[in-house]
Every structure is written in structure tokens, then in C-alpha cells.
TrEMBL record:
Protein's name according to its UniProt entry: Copper-binding protein
SUPFAM superfamilies: Cupredoxins, E set domains
InterPro entries: BlueCu_1_BS (IPR028871), Cupredoxin (IPR008972), Ig-like_fold (IPR013783), Ig-like_OmpL47-like (IPR058094), Ig_E-set (IPR014756)
Biased composition, class Basic and acidic residues, residue ranges: 598-613
Ranges for region Disordered: 591-613
Amino acid sequence: MSPRPIAVLLAAFLALLGLATPAVAAPVQTLTWTGSNSTTEYASAPTGALPGETTIVFENSEATGNTTGMSHTLTFDTSTPGYNHDVTLNVLANPFDPQNGRHEATVTLTPGKYRYFCTIPGHTSMVGEFVVSDGTGDTTAPTVTAAVTGDKDPSGNYLGSATVSLTATDAGSGVASVEYQLDGGTWTPYSAPVVVSSLGMHMLGYRATDVAGNTSAEGMAHFTIVERQGDGTPPTVTASLAGTQDASGNYVDVATATITATDADSGVAAVEYKLDDGAWTAYTAPVPVTAAGMHMLSYRARDNAGNTSPEGMAHFTVVKSDTTAPVVSASVAGTQDGDGHYVGKAVVTVTASDAGSGVGAVEYRVDGGAWTAYTAPVQVSSAGAHTVDYRARDVAGNTSAVGTVTFTVVAGGDTTAPVVSLTVSGKQSSDWSYVGQATVTLTATDAESGVDFAEYKVDSGAWTRYTTPVVVSALGAHTVRFRAADVAGNVSAEQSGAFTVVAAPPPPDACPNSDTRETVVIGGIDSQVENTDIGNGCTLNDVIDENAEYASHDRFVKHVKAVTQELVANGVLSSGDRNRIVTAAIESGVGGAPAAGHDVKPDVKKVKPRGQD
């Protein structure tokens, strides 16, 4: 007899005796955050909660969509005004860490608003907030449904495994938590689809609780899993590179990657690759790589039984053979009088193209002045004859001959200068200084010929055309001077504004007990790469975490590859240093026996302090 009928009979029996039915304890409140491949937002996050003791779950794993091995943190803000500061939480998660990216913490929440964010460099857009309230007014429980998916046999049984996805909605105070119970086991917070692979009949119960504390009736999903017969061995997959190579082994103009996969049992179902930090892509034909620079090609294959091969990697460099300079031209536009002169202003547009390595830069100069990077059409409004020179350079370094256009600008009837103003915005401290940075916004208006341009300079810097708000982050006192000119050539009087920028509080140290050895050392193998701080208090040795528990040596190497690839993408680590660290990980014995073909030699050089032979 299942536990649910027993509970019902017990309640009826107690009622007959005139005894109260024992109260069922409310489920412990659980709030769940998940991470994925995104560096701008969490994959999921709560928006509301009830006060009291709460289980915080942060999962950043392959199951939640992180297929690149990227690290994220879940950190509660304890300094920004307007938020609760009574919870200190700073959780670092990676899909290949000893917890496989899933971490829990217990905290006590109080009514009010909490702010959370990620401290990893380059992930500062990952930020959000949630409100803790008593949920007064909402008396309607959430609606929750389940969907079971997977491969099925003709009888409707699931082959090898079944995946159960839960969906909950609440139009009142909002969903606070979703839970499930498999085969009468303990209730577990739901954060991602549940994969069930044990053979036999199964019953999955599910329920949801809203912010007001209303809990839905328990739903049930029934399904049966049977054994998937056959193949248990992953495919064999290799990659080869072809193309013209120079004396250094670099590929000239293009390197073509061909991936080959075989499987002697169930056969190959899919082959995938990714180039550098790109997304995994289905492989259907050889891949030509033409972008100049160093590249890493990753590849893997899956057979029809669902077995996936270990990730393979191929390193190579592409260089360009382009010897032809770009083609560049310029045109002048504006209102012209009967003599062909431009009234008020002339606009010069420069166009460049390069069929070889591509355009690298375009420059111009006005009346023999300094060469300036061309980013938008150039407006010339001062009255008189003018000469604009222009040129372009391609990626391979070839520079075009200098081109020239000449024209004359005459003044219009407008004699009134534009009206200008300045505003400074940003987060301010108690003494009205700007914390971390200040944003300067200029406004210019002209009721007659119209504003031609506005310009500014910060402190003793050069005058610069104003196009978008200016962010000033250098610490200390600053003075911004500004002015504007209209189409008729009238220039406003120079004005100024002053403000002070002070340092923002440092982010929490993600690794208070750092590994501070001089170089990155893995299992006794010295990579000779400097053990630097990655920007959040953790060193390279900290994030590699050689002393953690790993399921296998291959699992540890996969962790190192993922972590170092992310550091390269964030500009913390060079590709060459990454290759040295990955090589040290492969040659080490961390996590178990080294991978095939990489046996650790008994005479491996041991780590010595720098400065010793």
C-alpha cells in the first residue's frame, strides 16, 4: 500500500476517535538560481519570497544550460543603499567543480528587497533583485503541471531514461518554490528537468508554493523505464587540418578542418564542433577557417545509443598573404549656392573596401591637421576653403595612397550661437562624490541653422566631439569644459562643470584563502605560467583547484580546459599560457590515472622556487 492511502486512513481513524489530525509541516522555503552560457543574466532567478529560514540553491551546470564550463558567482549585495544587507552570501560555481556546479546555503530572510550579482570579471551585467514580503491578500495556490519526455518503445515505456519537466504559474503573489518527490522519497526543490534512469515503474509527485504561502494540491506523473539494448561505447572521433603552410607551420589564408567519427556498434548519430569561444555546431562538411590569428577547434561525436565521446581539441594559426592596399574614396554633400560653395557646412563621407584581408582602419585629416580615425561622416562648418585628406589600411598592413577632396564653406544668415548645458549623473556617496564613475551628458540646441556639433574636454585633455554621454572613471576631482557650434559657424561661449569621483568599495574576495605559489603547479607539474589573481581575489591555482575530488583524470582535465578557456575569453590569460596549463593538467595524475597516451614519467621535473636551477 502506498504512503498516501495510509495517511488518508490514519486521518479518518483519528477523526472517528475525536482526535485532531496532526498538522503537516509546511515545506522549507527554497529559492533557486541557475546559470548558463550567458554572461549578461542568470538562466533563472526568483522574484519573491517569504521571510524566515530559507534554503538558497545555486546551480551552474550542464543541466542548467552551461555547456562551456563557465564559472559564475551568486553574491548578495551588502553595501548598496536601499537593499537589505543582513545576508552575506558569495557562492562560486563551475560545472566541473567537486559539486558539479550545484551548491546550497541556508540563510534567514527579512521583509524588504535584496540585490544579487556575479563578481566574475566580464559578468557584471548579471544582476537582479527580489522582494521578501508576507504575501498578504493572496489566497489562491499556484497551478503546476508536469511533462514527461524521452524515447519510447511501442508499449509506451521509456527507453533508458525519462525526463520530467515541471511548470508552475501564480497570478497573485508569484511562485516561490516548486518541489518534486520520486517514488515516495523526500521532497526536493525543483531547479531543472528531472532525469530518471532506474528501470521499473515510477511515480513522481509535484507541488508548488507561492510567496503568500499557498501550496498547490499534489500532482502525480506515472511512467515506466525499460532497458535500452545494445551499444555502451562512445564513438571514436578525430580531426585533421589541411591547407598551405609557411615555414613556421602556420596556415596561409585558410585552414580547412575535417572531422571523422566512427562507431562500430549503433553507428554515429551526430558530430559537433566549435571554433574558439563559439557555440557547438553540427558538423556536416569540412570547416574552412579564414580569420587571421590563433585558433582552437573542439570536436565531439554521439552515437545512436546516446554515448558521447570525450571532447577533442586541435590548435592552429592562420596568417594572411594579402599584398593589395584597400580602395578608398570620398564624397562631399550639403546645401550649395550658385557658385557651388556649401552653405553653413559640408559633410565628407569616406568609403573603403578590401577584397583580401579586409579593411583594418580608415583615417582623415582636415586642412593638414592631425590624422584622425574615421568613424562617421565629417562635418566641416568653418567658413573658407578646405582640404580633407583620407586613407585606409587593411588587416594585412597595406596602406592606400592618400586621397583628397577640396571645397569651400560660406556662412549662412544665422548669427546666434547654440545654447548648451551639462548634467552629471551616477551613484553618489554621502558627500555627493560619484562612486566608481560619473556620466556626463551634454545638451545643445539652436533654433536657427541648427546644431552642427558639440565638443568637450575633461581636465587638461584634448577637445573631443560629443556623440554619446561620457563616462569618467578616473579617481579624483575633475573639470569638464564644453561648447557647441551651429551650422552657420557660430560657437557658444565655453562653459564648465566640476565633480569628484571616488573609488567604489572592492567586491568580496571570492577566495579568502588563496593559493599564492609563484607559478601554476598541477600535481607536481610546473606549467611555468605566473600564478596571477584573475580579478576577484582568486588565483589561477585557486580556480584550477587540483586538490578537489574529481570522478576521473579526464573529468579534471575537462574542468581545467573549461576554466582556462573562459579566462582567455576575459583577457586574463593568453592562449599560449592556456596551452601550457592544459598540457600540465594532462601530464599530471590529478583525479586518477592520466589519460591514454599521457603517462606521467617517473623522472618528471619537480617544482622548484623561482631563481633556482
